[in-house]
Amino acid sequence: MNPSSPQPRVIALWGPPRSRSTAFARMMMERGDLLVLHEPISNLLSVGHLDVEGVRVHSPAELLERILRLGEDRPVFFKDTTEYRYLPYLDDRFTTRVVHTFIIRDPAEAIASHCAVNPGLTLDEVGYERQFEVFEHVRRATGSTPVVLDSGDLLADPAGVVRAYCERVGLPYRPEALSWEPGPRAEWERTARWHQDVAASGSFRARANDYRRTVHNDPRLAAFRDHHQPFHDRLAEVRIGSATRSVTS
């Protein structure tokens, strides 16, 4: 998106579980100029209903319409994790009216972190294949390559990556949002055990974790990594800071 274009009304961030997407959303909350929704579609699919700014919705179609309507009053940012398959719910209107962006993380790291929280992790729940499916759907529908950021790059250069992201999606860059007060958030309550790291943090920073099961000592997790790595790698080719080129199926 051209920085001189009008500010977008709805921005989505799609990421596999444990891709540091919640930390990114926490930074977006700190800006103060966006309505930030935490994993609205996956919460709806998990519970069967969701209260969104005073309105209860019961289906993905109702939810996506509600998000678009909210975007008519103020800019909206939402992030969701791709352990679910979302493509059946993304109609042309929602696909083309929303600025869709994507966050990736080295699959070996993400899988070990995911398994530590969810020991019964399945192949599909790793999420990279489903993330790439959404990416390709958006790319084909809009005729342009969506924004991709790598959370490893984000930790290495928070200011540079966030500034580039803001420029690409048409938001003003707010460096003061790169740090925040640690602590839990009410919207994280249902899934609090997934967000302990970001609740304890006050900025983008790496945390030392010694995971018991990893792709290096668990053949099942290694097979998950081997399956999802190509989808990650194709997104990594066009991430912010790389030499951007078209991704083809």
β-strand amount: 5-15%
Helix percent band: 40-55%
Low-confidence region ranges: 1-5, 243-249
User: What would you report as the Rg, rounded to the nearest angstrom?
Assistant: 17 Å
Taking strands numbered 1, 2, ... along the chain, how are they ordered across the largest sheet? 2-5-1-6-7
Number of E-state strands: 7
Tell me the span between the first and last alpha carbons. Answer: 23 Å
Question: What does this molecule look like?
Answer:
- The chain has 249 residues and is α/β, with parallel strands linked by helices.
- Helices cover 42% and strands 13% of the residues.
- The protein contains ten helices and seven strands.
- It has helices at 21-31, 40-47, 60-71, 92-97, 107-117, 128-142, 151-156, 158-169, 196-200, 219-236; strands at residues 10-15, 35-38, 50-52, 55-57, 76-81, 99-104, 147-150.
- The strands form two sheets. A five-stranded parallel β-sheet has the order 2-5-1-6-7, with helices on both faces.
- It is globular, with a radius of gyration of 17 Å.
- The model is unreliable at 1-5 and 243-249 (pLDDT under 50).
Summarize it.
The chain is an alpha/beta fold and 249 residues long.
Question: Characteristics of this structure?
Answer:
249 residues; alpha/beta; five-stranded parallel sheet; 10 helices; disordered C terminus
Detail the topology: elements first, then pairings.
Blueprint (H helix, E strand, L loop, with lengths): L9 E6 L5 H11 L3 E4 L1 H8 L2 E3 L2 E3 L2 H12 L4 E6 L10 H6 L1 E6 L2 H11 L10 H15 L4 E4 H6 L1 H12 L26 H5 L18 H18 L13
Parallel strand pairs: 1-5, 1-6, 2-5, 6-7
Antiparallel strand pairs: 3-4
Helix pairs in contact: 5-10, 6-10
